[in-house]
Every structure is written in structure tokens, then in C-alpha cells.
Fold:
Amino acid sequence: MLTFATGKHRHCDGISRRSFLKAGALGIGGLSLADLLRAEAVSGVGSSNKAVINIHLDGGPPQMDMIDPKPDAPIEIRGEFKPIRSSIPGLHLTELMPRMAKAADKFAFIRSLQGSAGRHDAFQCQSGYSFRELDSIGGRPAMGCAVSKLLASPTDTAPAFVDILQGRGLARNSARPGFLGPAYRPFRPEISHLFHRELEPGMQNELANLGGGHQVSLGLIEGLTAGRLGDRVALLKSMDRLRRDVDRSGQMEALDEFTQQAVSILTSGQFAEAMDLEKEDPRMLDRYTPRVPDPDPKNYTMEGAMAGRKLLLARRLVEAGVRCVSVSISDFDTHSNNFNRMRTIGPLVDQALTTLVEDLEERGMLDDVSIVAWGEFGRTPKINDKAGRDHWPRVGMALLAGGGMKTGQVIGATDRTASEATDRPVNYQDIIATLYHNLGLDARGITVEDTSGRPQYLIDAGAPIRELV
Structure:
């Protein structure tokens, strides 16, 4: 485990001690970021300002309680929340989403999301595919992993893909590289010290099975200065000189290059600064922190109002050069106490998501950054005997913004109980294909090789949503 010290003063070489991070590794040569950089260099593609923030609403958001109210449905279906008008004529959201209703022209509302695999897993939202797809050869890669392979450059100042999923998305390794192999895994910083999210008991063993190296710890300790770090890199090069001399393929030289590059990224300060929310203006922190009450009783998977700041962290990472960020907001698995819990997490998402859009627009970044917020499925129209809504894979919802998309519209429709799509069904692959398109990638025209050497298209069934692009 390699640790970089942090603090407020600067070394004589000008590198801030706060710029150091603790990077999960077995040594300098084993930095996981070095593996990522090594893989990125294969593409040889230049850098780009285009990026994606993929927000997983963990548990499956109830579509009729957020963006598809059914006020004329029977009481056992329509629930407790009243519809409110939005800035788009004819579009009503529920009373939980007043900010989004006011800023509706900045969003695309998809009410007819179909094709759910019906599993509590963020993987389908990360890739467009079921977790079983190509399982025999490692499975499909998450979008961010494919982006790392296709768009990243060894001169980038930040990892291409940063995964800050928590809860089940973390335990099930939802942002996994699949058949691309471990070199393209995401850079996964430890954020539990910033955002607490209690893991479901059934998921704890799954997380343990991932092992201790699946995250990069950002714990802060003293002891390793920039000078000592440089000495260790020099020592590694010296020890490897003999092997490099007999290595006619140039692999050892590449290893040195990428190891130094990984260290350079971690100590340059840019990525470290992005991860440090203490650097943010307190007024901006406040904007991302809604004043919402905890439900009574409070579900143990609930994160609370501070979870809104995850989207601020995502913006900071994109600003630092990250191309794809996956993030989660939890407690949408509302089998019980749906309405009380939604009174907390509905306004939380409403404020955090609209603030993210406003923030990106103020910084001139909105057209370059695509945002999607969605879950693994919808929830049942009928309220159960625990005042909850159960799993409903038949139809769900998604929200999109930014990325130069044509927002201010509703795509798709459901019947009077939000049970079935009645117009313009949209598949998970369609949304992923749209995000690829916004990054400048033709998901139906570009292939990546699987472990057998066979070319695989990024998306094999979906297409960019024509109303948006």
C-alpha cells in the first residue's frame, strides 16, 4: 500500500503536501493508476473536454412519485404526492420536484425506459447490458472503461474513469471492465469518510469478495515526501535497468513511463484538489446541500442531505479532466414507507441535480458534460400493505441534461397507472449510445476486441435517441 502524505504547507519543490493521495498499490510499480494509464496509451487519441456524469438512483426510483404523476389513477396507485406544473407546457412533475419543474427546459424527461434486467445492480446503467451478457468471457465493459480504452491519452492529468458508486453498486463491482481486462478498471477512490452509506447485510460478503485492493484509499498520513517519492521511482528504474536492457519489446521502458506518469498525476495536485471538498466555496457547498428532514423511521441505507455533495464532487472531477464519473444516491428501494422516504430523497435529488446543471452552465461546461440520472428499474404502480412500492422492471424513468442535447422535452408516455409504456419506448442501450454519441463515439460503428480477439461493438442493439441529438 503506497501512501502520499497531505497537509497545508508546500515542499521546496513546490508540490503541496495536500496534493498527495494514498493510492492502493503493492509498490510504485504496482500502482493501479499506472495500469490504467498504460491501457489508455494504446488508443493514441488526443484529449477532449467532453465528459459524462452517470448518476445511479440506487434501488429503482418510483417514476409516478417523481416525473410521471398519475392524479386520475385510483388512490392505491396515485399515492400521496400532488402534480405541479413545469416550465414546459403540459408537463407536470410531482410536488417533490419544484426546482426541476422550474428548470424543466434544461432537462429531458424519459418516461418509457424499458429492458430492465430486474436486478439490484448499477451495471445496466453503466453499460446498457444485462450482467449476464458475454459472461463466459468476462462480461461487457462499463462505458467508462471503454472510454478509457478509446479516448484517454497518456498526457491526461486525471484518470479517464473515476467510479464513486457506493452501496450495492460498489459491492457488485458495477463499473467493471469486463472482457477489456483489469488494465481498464476505473480509478475508484475511497469516499466513505466523506459520504456514509450503510451496506445491506446481504451485500457485505459480496464486497468482501472483491478484496482489499478494489478501492484507492484517500486516508491522510504523514511520512512520504515528494523527494522520497522521486527517489523510489529512480530506485525502481535502476533495479529494472538490466531487465530493460534485455527487453527488446520496450515493455520495461513503457512500465517506467507509466509508473512515473501515475505518480505525476497523483502528486501534481490537480486530482487531489478535485477530491478535496474543503477547497470548495462554502456557498457552493450549501447550494448542493438541501434542507430535508430525515424520515421517521429512518432507513439504514439512507445517506441524508450530504449525499447531494456527491454531484459537486463529480463536477470537480470533470473539471480536473476526468471523462466519465459514476456516482450513486441511495434509498430508492422503497418496499416500505415509500412516501415518507421519498419526502427526503425526492427533494434531495431535485436540488442536487438542478444545482449541478446550474453550476455547469455558470462555468460554461454544460454543453460539454452529459448528465444522466436513472435506476435499475421502476417501481410498482400499486402501493403494497407496507405503504411501499415493489420492483417494476416493465417501465422506469431517466433524466438527461447537458451534453449539447435538445432538452426541454418529454420522451415516451405510460398508461394511466404508469404500468406500461404506451409511446416511444426507450432502452438502456439507447441512452448509453446517446452518451457515447455526445463523447464523439459511434457506439454502433466502433469495436473493441474481447479476450478471444473477436471485435465487439460498444452497443449492439440501441441507437442514439433521435429527439436528443
Confidence is low (pLDDT under 50) at residues 1-32, 42-47, 218-222, 246-258. The longest helix spans residues 338-362. The domain at 47-197+281-457 is CATH 3.40.720.10 (Alkaline Phosphatase, subunit A). The CA atoms of residues 54 and 222 lie 34 Å apart.
